Automatic annotation (TrEMBL):
InterPro entries (alphabetical): Globin-like_sf, Globin/Proto, Hemoglobin_trunc
GO molecular function: heme binding; metal ion binding; oxygen binding
Keyword Metal-binding set for record: yes
Transport as UniProt keyword: yes
Positions of heme binding: H72
Protein name as annotated: Group 1 truncated hemoglobin
Top-rank taxon, per record: Bacteria
Amino acid sequence: MSETLYDRLGGLDGITRLVDDIADAHLNNPIVKTRFEVIEDLDQTKQWLVEFVCAGTGGPQAYTGRDMISTHKGMNISEQEYLAVVDDIMSAMDKNQLSEPVKSEILSIVYSIKEEIIRV
């Protein structure tokens, strides 16, 4: 049996580290940091993102957050902000020394939900 993307990301521990690094990058990115500084419970938001990534990559965790459209509705997220977030995700994956195939798979997932995030 081949390894799932979840396994190749390092399972729950690897995904949690990745999400922490992504959140740190967002909080230091001038294009999107104000969006993340106002989140009332960043730890809960990060937990939902961990669940989302785990569930979406073949892990056993269930995602308990809202769907992407409900989460981003009314935020009027621009293409520039979306691309800044993608850049932060790529940087965090580099920091975590993920392989090129893994980065490509994550990038394809990120782009597959783009229409559920931008200007909804």
